[in-house]
Amino acid sequence: MHQENDIDLSIIIPFFNEQNFIIKLFDQIKLYFNKNNIEIIFVDDGSTDESLQILQNLQKDRDYKFLFKISRLDINSGKGKAIQTGIKKSNGKYILLQDADLELDIKDAKEMYEMISNNNEIKCIFGSRYLSGKLKKNNYFFNSLVGKINSLIFNIFFSQSLSDVHCGLKVLHRSVIDKINLSVNDFGIEIDLASQIVRNNFFIYEFGVSYFFRSKSQGKKITWIDGLKSFYYLLKVRFFDNSSSTNISILYSSIYMAFVGSHFGMGLGNTLFIVLFFIIGSIIGIHFKIISSTIIFLFILIGSLFGKGNGTTLAVIIFFLIGLILARNTKKYFYNSKFNDYF
């Protein structure tokens, strides 16, 4: 008999109207994860087809070793809500998130689980559709472009180097799950999850995975609207879901950098410089609190005292870089101290 406290891995699979893929998916799970210390949690996101009935029949057959759970949301609430529901019902030392549409290979999920379970230093692995030399099938250029742009923006905002933030295949240690509080209900869950992992100082490893796209006629759910919404979530998790000290720092550095930008160019050019420097300031405020940010500002002011014309611009840039380096070193020095909120 299964004991939930003996579960090593919880595989959470959210699904919505996947009757054409459920049986094949289940067979793949049995092939790679048919063990007593594993639980499979299917979360039905308000399906209106035969998906749930198919799963219930498979559950009754008991032709498997793992613990088999099915949870149902009464109405279609989104992938994020389904994942949150699955996490609450999970007991494993590790959590594996797997999409139900078989765009991502279950065999890759097995490899990722083996990697994280055999290395105590790894707490988080994201699959990446763009890293591997594995087999791929994809002709959705726009979706791929948006995914890469979002990953680039995420990397800039959070000082990361991820290639595929949106990949639905992830393995997380329970210590990561215990530190985060997911709140996004739709496909923006991927950005919400990644941002909270980074905020809690966990390193995200990446593993190249195979990818076999499916068309809308085959049941693909994500649309270009979700791609546009993802830009909103990127702004939200970076500029609004912060501590009070970080929000103050963002406002502070944005204002002084806009002031610096006002000294460059003329007419429309001057306006563009102000906007550009304001954006740069907002990013500075994310990474540096009041005191370390002030160090940068002071060095910019010192640089503005040297030279004339283009010489002043060059001096400001040089002193800005010096201030940036000094602020970063100061931040590191006070990182584990009681003054961390000021640096």
Q: Which CATH architecture of the largest domain?
A: Alpha-Beta Complex
Q: How many separate domains make up the residues?
A: 2
- In whole angstroms, how far apart are the ends? 53 Å
By CATH reckoning, the class of the largest domain would read: Alpha Beta
Which descriptor suits the 3D outline?
Answer: elongated
The fraction of residues in strands falls at 5-15%
Main sheet? 7 strands, mixed
Based on secondary structure, the structural category is: alpha/beta
The number of E-state strands comes to 9
Core attributes:
Spore Coat Polysaccharide Biosynthesis Protein SpsA, Chain A; two-stranded parallel sheet; 12 helices
What do these coordinates show?
This protein has 343 residues and is an alpha/beta fold. The protein has 2 domains: 4-239, Alpha-Beta Complex (Spore Coat Polysaccharide Biosynthesis Protein SpsA, Chain A), CATH 3.90.550; 244-342. The chain is 50% helix and 13% strand. The protein is built from 12 helices and 9 strands. The strands form 2 sheets. The chain has a 7-stranded mixed sheet, sandwiched between helices. Strands 6-9 form a two-stranded parallel sheet. Helix 2 (51-61) links the parallel strand 2 and strand 3 (67-73). Helix 9 (244-261) packs antiparallel against helix 10. The protein is elongated and about 80 Å long. The model has no long low-confidence stretch (mean pLDDT 88).
Topology:
Blueprint: E1 9-15, H1 22-33, E2 38-45, H2 51-61, E3 67-73, H3 79-88, E4 94-97, H4 106-117, E5 124-128, E6 136-137, H5 141-158, E7 170-173, H6 174-177, H7 189-199, E8 205-208, E9 211-212, H8 224-239, H9 244-261, H10 268-287, H11 290-303, H12 310-333
Parallel strand pairs: 1-2, 1-4, 2-3, 5-8, 6-9
Antiparallel strand pairs: 4-7, 5-7
